[in-house]
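REQUEST ID: PR-0412
SUBMITTED BY: lab tech R.K.
PRIORITY: routine
TASK: structure prediction, single protein chain
INPUT:
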Amino acid sequence: MLDATRPQHRLPAAPGVGFKPAHFTALDADPGPVRWLEVHAENYMGDGGRPIAQLRALSERFPISVHGVGLSIGGEGPLDAEHLDRLKHLLGWLAPASFSEHLAWS
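STATUS: complete
OUTPUT:
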């Protein structure tokens, strides 16, 4: 559950970057001025593996902003219920500081 009193649940007015798993080791060792991270939701909708483990570890140190790119809110068809379920699961365990989604026709 979101708890705005926890630093991980607020995006600071400071530099943030889009996280890429290839940069995990360097970011973990020395984040420099980075104070928060953005991830694409669809890259973390699985149930395990290295990317999920890395995101879990980083979420203990950094506020996370999740941005979805695959919901197709602007499409002519109905929303994908399975996609929504996976998104709900991700947002549930991660409890990010923010969430946004593309409003796009795809």
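NOTES: The mean pLDDT is 89.
REVIEWED BY: pending
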